[in-house]
Every structure is written in structure tokens, then in C-alpha cells.
Amino acid sequence: MAKTLKIASYNIHKGMSALNRRLVVHDVRKALEALEPDVVFLQEVQGSHERRAQQFTYWPESPQHEFLEHGDLKSVYGRNAVHKLGHHGNALLSRFPVVRWGNHDITLNRFEQRGLLHCVLDVPGWQQPLHAFCVHLNLLGRDRRKQLNKLVSQIHHEVPDDAPLVIAGDFNDWRREATHVLQHDVHVVEAFEALHGAPARSFPVKMPVLSLDRIYVRGFNIELANVLGGAPWTGLSDHAPLYTVLRKT
């Protein structure tokens, strides 16, 4: 029976360095392998990009969510943004079987195509499955508030009130509005905030000042919550990843 879960959340910036000069998805894969996570919530995952595939010699032949699979971690991909050169979206890597999943459109304008990736995971020995939502919200506050309401509605519709729940991703929430909404409406706590008193500063990665990324949980004790800085992370995405260890209550 799995008593603890190692969770990571990471906006990988489409597998490119912060200024889009270098292909770093190979290094992202190696860094994630070293964490030995059970579940990884990924944002800005490149499903395909014709121009970059021609530009970079070592561009993976498979979509990035499949390329980032390793060991017994398998992927689910929710395509959100589609353009003439390809598409990108959210993805989940899971050590546990995904018994069902859905990608829910929360797009509010044509410049920010967003989705909620909901996966239901069969964790050995648990009486109930784990519900995992991978999230990437808009830049404008009024849009984020609408998208948070859609997230809450989706959780009420699809997740039993007593089921274990993790919601993670890039909330673009530098105003820190999401925690109040989600605590009140779906009874989660933010992992880093619960242990350290405030959400993690995760952007920009080399000198983080904004709290954009979050991991919200329900049904767990939080044993560890870190924002991962330093090598190798500062040479990869423009975001720093979040990492937490949870123990099932």
C-alpha cells in the first residue's frame, strides 16, 4: 500500500530554455528522473511543433509528454492550444494506473487556450482513487476568477467530497486569490503555504519573486514542500518546479 506520495508540479516552457534559445527537454527529463516522483503535473507541454522539430537536431521524435515518461511513469496529455505549427497543453505523469481522464476546456479568449486535465488514479491499497487536476490559468485576474469557478464546479461534479484530491499547476496567481476560493469551496490546503506560511515564489526561476505555481491537497498530511532552485533547474524553464511529499490520512 502506498502511504506516501511524491508530487511535483512544473511549467516546462515547452521544453525550451527561458529565452527560447536552447532545447532543454532532455535535461528536464533527467532532472525529473532524479526526483523519483510518483505523480508529475506538467504545464506548457509541446505536443508538436514543426518549425522547432526542424530547427533543433535533437528534437524528440515523440511528443514531449511521451518523451518525459521514464521507468513506470506513464503520461496523459490534454491538448489545449492549437496553432498552425503544432499544439501544446497540460500533461500528467503517473506511477499509478489512470483509470479514466478528461480534458475540460476553460478557454476564455483566443490568445490563451486553457484546459483542466482531470485524471483518476488507482493507487494500490487505497479504498478510493486519487483525483488529480492539472491546471494552467489565464494572466488576467478576472479570467482566473472565472476559471477557478469552473474548476470548483468540475470538482463538485466529478469528485466525491471525501475523495483524496490534488490540484496542481501554474495558477498565474500573483495576487494570491486562488487559495481562499479553493479552501472555502473544495476544502483543500496549499502544501507550501501550509508548512511555510505563504505560497512558494517560483517565477522567474533565477530570481523568484512571484507566487505563480501551487499544489493544493485534500486528504493528506504534508510532510515536505519545497520550491526547487539552483542547478539544474535554473538552466531549464522560466519557472521553478514545486515538490511535496504527502502522507495519506
Overview of the structural elements:
The protein has 249 residues and is an alpha+beta fold. The protein has a single domain (4-248), classed as Deoxyribonuclease I, Chain A. The protein has helices at 25-35, 50-55, 64-67, 141-158, 178-186, 191-196; strands at residues 4-11, 39-49, 74-83, 86-94, 98-105, 115-121, 130-136, 165-170, 189-190, 213-218, 220-227, 242-248. It has a 6-stranded mixed sheet. It has a 6-stranded mixed sheet with strand order 5-6-7-8-10-9. Strand 7, helix 4 and strand 8 form a beta-alpha-beta unit. The longest helix is centred in the middle third of the chain and has 18 residues, at 141-158. The relative contact order is 0.17. It comes from Amantichitinum ursilacus.
Summing up helix and strand content along with how strands pair, one would put the structural category as alpha+beta
Q: Radius of gyration, rounded?
A: 17 Å
How far apart, in Å, are the first and last alpha carbons? 13 Å
Q: Give the class-level CATH name.
A: Alpha Beta
Helix coverage percent: 10-25%
User: How is the CATH topology named?
Assistant: Deoxyribonuclease I, Chain A
**Annotated CATH architecture:** 4-Layer Sandwich
Order of helices and strands: EHEHHEEEEEHEHEHEEE
Number of domains: 1
How much of the sequence lies in strands comes to: 35-45%
State the low-pLDDT regions, or none. Answer: none
Sequence of strands across the biggest β-sheet: 3-4-2-1-12-11
* Beta strand count: 12
Shape: globular
Major sheet characteristics: 6 strands, mixed
Number of helices: 6
The CATH homologous superfamily is termed Endonuclease/exonuclease/phosphatase
Q: Name the average pLDDT.
A: 96
